[in-house]
Write a structure and sequence with these properties.
The chain is mostly helical. The chain has one domain. It has helices spanning 9-13, 30-45, 49-80; strands at 21-22, 27-28. Strands 1-2 form a two-stranded antiparallel ribbon. A hairpin with a 4-residue loop joins strand 1 and strand 2. The longest helix has 32 residues, at 49-80.
Length: 81
Amino acid sequence: MTSGDHFQPEEVCSKTRDNVWCLSDGSCNIRGVLRYHFEDRLLERAENSEEIVQGVPELVDLAAFLIHLFAEGFVQCSDTQ
């Protein structure tokens, strides 16, 4: 990825939404990793697991979006130095 490129989460994440790795380009699917860990940990502690599971996709999407924004900003700052 060069400084002019902007990573679009949909390029990897929508194709492999629940998979941890996208084998076609060898990249890590952040949304898949987050969903995997959130579901496991939340279900262990949840009193009402059905209600928790319904909210997981939105939580995962938000977390993945924020991580992508941070990573993009970090790359841009690194390129300018």
